[in-house]
Design goal:
The protein is α/β, with parallel strands linked by helices. It has two domains: 217 residues, Spore Coat Polysaccharide Biosynthesis Protein SpsA, Chain A; 91 residues, no CATH class. Helix content is 40%, strand content 20%. Strands 1, 2, 3, 4, 5, 6, 11, 12 and 13 form a nine-stranded mixed β-sheet that branches. Helix 1 packs parallel to helix 2, helix 7 packs parallel to helix 9 and helix 8 packs antiparallel against helix 9. The radius of gyration is 19 Å and the shape is globular. The model has no long low-confidence stretch (mean pLDDT 95).
């Protein structure tokens, strides 16, 4: 019996991205793999464009914009497959991109999530910020990648081409085992967008699954297509969701020491925004903390559920501080140890 794989692209007012990138997905995805676009209540002409230009592509229409997390949750309830391939609408997929990923998923049933290598679409020799060659977090919850530490992105010279377990796989291009996705309850809908894939990968590891990267597959991501780095809403989501993720998933002994340090560092980050003349980002950090406290009741219930199902602690949290390593000049993944 052959496994069923389906590629699902979440779209919101992304007609330009679809016209630019969807042709490579359709052309370079094996014929037996269905390509689906889940439309998140777009108000542009995305759906009409798809119907006219890509009649073979199935369109799932959601009634409004549910964000990345709940948008995918609702769409994937309507998709029957063994493996979901979640793909951003601004990702170019070259020939042969998918088979190495599916072969690895079939070979290792304990892998819940798998990432390809992600390079920059605009500078194709460079890793892409959002995924590079597999993701990690440090002891304080700051994400980084093999190929990207904070804002420093490396050139891909093949230095991270080994297959290995990682902590998280980028939602820009993510293969996830359908059975595991639904057993875990999918993405946390309260995240809306940003860090929901890190949270999902963390929860998967806590119940015994593995997360891995397969660099034999490489895709090219434009990135930054929805919210810019200086967008206050993006800043708000990143700070709020990071705190929520730590609260839900950290072990009892590490929870409050970690959160206390993060609260101090987040306050320093807010002050830095203010000194840089970015008062809206300053306010976004404090709104994130305010809403983290406001959501404490629901977060406590989620934490109880996650911790009660705990099988093992994740082995791939970096024990040091990325911020400190960065300040001392260690700006490349290969120099961290």
């Amino acid at each position: 019996m052959h496994s069923v794989t389906k590629v699902v692209i979440l779209n919101w007012n992304g007609r330009e991205h679809l016209s630019r990138f969807l042709p490579t997905v359709v052309a370079n995805t094996p014929q037996e793999v269905e390509v689906i676009v889940a439309d998140n209540g777009s108000t542009d002409d995305s759906c009409d464009f798809l119907q006219e230009q890509f009649p073979t592509v199935r369109v799932i229409r959601l009634d409004r914009n549910y964000g990345f997390a709940e948008g995918y949750n609702r769409a994937l309830q309507q998709v029957e497959a063994d493996y979901y391939v979640l793909l951003n609408s601004d990702v170019e997929t070259p020939a042969g991109w998918l088979p190495p990923l599916i072969r690895m998923m079939e070979q290792y049933p304990e892998i819940a999530g798998l990432a390809p290598k992600v390079r920059s679409f605009t500078d194709r020799s460079m890793f892409e910020y959002a995924g590079a060659s597999g993701g990690f977090i440090d002891a304080l919850g700051y994400p980084f990648c093999r190929g990207r530490i904070l804002s420093v992105v490396e050139q891909d010279r093949g230095q991270y081409d080994d297959v290995r377990d990682v902590f998280w796989a980028s939602g820009a291009a993510l293969v996830f085992r359908a059975e595991a996705f639904h057993a875990l309850g999918g993405f946390d809908p309260d995240f809306f967008a940003h860090m929901e894939e890190i949270d999902l990968c963390w929860r998967a590891q806590l119940v015994g699954y593995r997360i891995a990267v397969q660099p034999a597959s490489c895709v090219y991501h434009l990135g930054g297509g929805t919210l810019s780095v200086n967008n206050p809403h993006k800043t708000y989501l990143n700070f709020r969701n990071n705190l929520a993720m730590l609260y839900k998933n950290l072990s009892k002994g590490r929870l409050w020491p970690t959160l206390l340090v993060r609260m101090l560092l987040d306050g320093l980050a807010a002050m830095a925004y203010l000194l840089q003349g970015k008062p809206m980002l300053f306010k976004a950090v404090f709104r994130a903390h305010r809403d983290f406290y406001r959501n404490f009741s629901s977060l406590r219930k989620k934490r109880r559920s996650i911790q009660s199902a705990l099988i093992r602690k994740s082995e791939y949290i970096y024990s040091g501080s990325i911020l400190l390593r960065y300040l001392f000049g260690r700006k490349y993944f290969g120099n961290l140890l």
